Amino acid sequence: MDRYTGRMAKAIRFFELNTGAKIPSVGLGTWQSDPGLVGDAVATAVGYRHIDCAQVYGNEKEIGSALKKLFEDGVVQRKDIFITSKLWSTNHAPEDVHEALNGTLRDLQLEYLDLYLVYEATIHWPVSMKKGSTGFKPENLTQPNIPSTWRAMEEIYDSGKAHAIGVSNFSCKKLGDLLEIARIPPAVNQVECHPAWQQPQLHAFCEYKGVHLSGYSPLGNPATLKSNVLKNPLLNTVAEKLGKSPAQVALRWGLQMGHSVLPKSTNESRLKENLDVFDWSIPEDMFAKFYEIEQASTPLCTKLVKGTAFVHETLGAYKNVEELWDGEL
């Protein structure tokens, strides 16, 4: 029995991190959730035990107010909910890392985060931008210093303000380079992952190194990115045979692959549907078919979030998206 087959019949409600902590397998994504709706979504999604946030999303204050009310009303206790946030690319300097985290904690009205991620250059993305800059203008791009940023992240972990630290949008090469110099290894690498962009090389590398892979846009983000992931014929065939929605099958596929998933919705019925992935599984023969989905830039199979705003021929660290992802496209 391989590691995937062994997960077929399990509920898979949590994954264990290299810190010993357990990360809930299904989290509520909040990227591009509409203002005025994201707080209601957090309040409605009381079955979720993982909320994925970021300062750059611009909604942490609203989420913080919703969380405070849930805690005060006794709906859920702080210890029972896993909250992630991320360092943005304008705060890569070591002295800015602490300031950024404190700002996030104030907005979320929390004393600590369960997980703090740095984008690829700020560890949310492996790029850095001028402090105080807004938007994605090429002239704002700077040269990242991931080792110094990571040392500041390690200090945050030591302080107890983040119970785990990790990265986002890191390729195998960038993750490997970081692991060579890290005193505290990243617990998580959050990347785009769905049946049409399965990332097998990165998946295997993370598992080998003990870094949990967490998948954003697990449904392809059809509303924002106008993707066709949920229209994949195999996904729909499996969904019809199991009496589930294509979205549920895509999420369950992620759990059985061994990574947590972060679907985004502010719709109450979809919030409930996306959480109904524990009491059933994709049979082994159907699950094996997912490996046959072509992983190439076709209308149905492509990487959706390429990071084109972070590349420039003469400015910043990367001339093109191939350099940004170290050829892992």
Automatic annotation (TrEMBL):
Domain called NADP-dependent oxidoreductase: residue spans: 41-293
Record keywords, A-Z: Acetylation, NADP, Oxidoreductase
One GO MF term: oxidoreductase activity
Annotated coiled-coil segments of the chain: none
Binding-site list for substrate: 124
Active-site residues per Swiss-Prot or TrEMBL entry: 57 (proton donor)
Transcription regulation among keywords: no
Residues with site note (Lowers pKa of active site Tyr): 86
Family, similarity comment: Belongs to the aldo/keto reductase family.
PANTHER family: ALDO/KETO REDUCTASE
Protein name in UniProt: NADP-dependent oxidoreductase domain-containing protein
